[in-house]
Structure formats: structure tokens, C-alpha cells
Amino acid sequence: LSIAGMADLTAAIGGADAGQGLLIKIDSQGQPLWQIHLANAVSLDGVSATREGNTAVCGTSTLGGFYWALVSPSGQLIWERRLLLSTYDRATRLIQTVDGGFLISGYTYASFANPGYYLKVDELGSVQWNRLGTGNNPGAGAVEAANGDFILVGGHFDSSFSYNAIYLTRVSSQGTFIFSRQLVGDTASPSLKAVR
Fold first, then answer.
1. For 47-65, what is each residue's pLDDT tens digit?
2. Residue 190 CA: distances (Å) to CA of 6, 27, 64, 117, 193
3. Alpha carbon distance 144, 187 (integer Å)
4. Is the four-CA dihedral 166, 133, 105, 152 of positive or negative sign?
5. CA-CA distance, 123 to 134, in Å (whole number)?
6. How are strands ordered across the β-sheet holding 66-71?
7. How far apart are CA 31 and CA 27, in angstroms?
8. How far is 190 from 140, CA to CA, in rounded Å?
9. Model confidence over 127-181: pLDDT tens digits?
């Protein structure tokens, strides 16, 4: 489940229902305004309000790959996209970028180490670049720096599914890795919030 507050005091909630992605928009009193089932998604794990008043979502596609979509303020699907690396890929977070596109983070099982995976898409959802990352839970957070670089945070689970490391990665606006560092870990899920 994921929730995003909208500029008009409504909120959008993403989740799953009967094997499909489900997006519900609620008013300021928690009453549903509309809902849309997204048949090409199994679940919606990330929800984000856009500057234009739309709702961007990401999750897992019915094929098992990354899924992302844009829905209008009235609940109409504007576009949806998928990317399949393996049948166990999952997009977990997305943020709108200064250029109107989105940075999507998640993870893939396309390799044994199931690393983080990042996509930069344009305002129409078309992939501009994609990169493997570090850690196996990169979706904990991402911010866009003032110069357009992306700062990504994620963790690494040990065999007991506790975080044993936190990874911090900086990627240029073109997707070039600037650095990736393992920070001292703790048992709490890492998070990173931005203040613009």
C-alpha cells in the first residue's frame, strides 16, 4: 500500500484488488471519489502526486516486471508502461523530476544478487535510461538534487530479513554513477526525505 497527498486536499491510495492494481482517490473526509483497476498491474507499491494534479503510480506488472502509469485527476488512465527484466521485478517508489518525468526505483531478480534497479522516464513514461544499483531494497527513498543528480538510498537484507547495511548512491541526471557507498547499517528501514 502507498498513499500520496494531493494539492487539492484529496489523497490517492494505491494497492491491489483481485490480482489487479487498484488506485482510489479520496476526499479530505476519507470518502472515495473514484477508483480505477489497472489490469496490467498486480499491485501498486508507489503513489506520487504530480505538479499537474495527476497521480503517478508504480508497482509490479502482470508479467512480473516493473509497471508505471499516470492517471488524471478524474481517474482516467493517461498512459501505462512496463519493463520486464525477470518475472520477479518490482517498482517500489517514484518521484516526479524537475523535467516533468519520473525516477522509478525498485529491485530485480534478473541477477543472483537481486540488486536495486532505477529507471528514469520522460513525461510520457518512455524510458530514458535504466541502471542496476547496489543493495537489495533501493526503493526506500530518492531525491533530486539542485543540479539534477539523484541521491538514492536503500538497504541490504541479511538472511533474517533485517537490514544490515544502508547504501547511498548518487547518479547524474543522465544515469551515470557518481558514487555508491555502504554506510553503517541499523535494523530500521532507511528513508530519505527532501526539502526543496
1. 999 999 999 999 999 988 8
2. 25, 30, 25, 17, 10
3. 26
4. positive
5. 26
6. 41-49, 55-61, 66-71, 77-83
7. 5
8. 6
9. 999 887 655 555 567 899 999 999 888 776 655 555 567 778 888 999 998 988 8
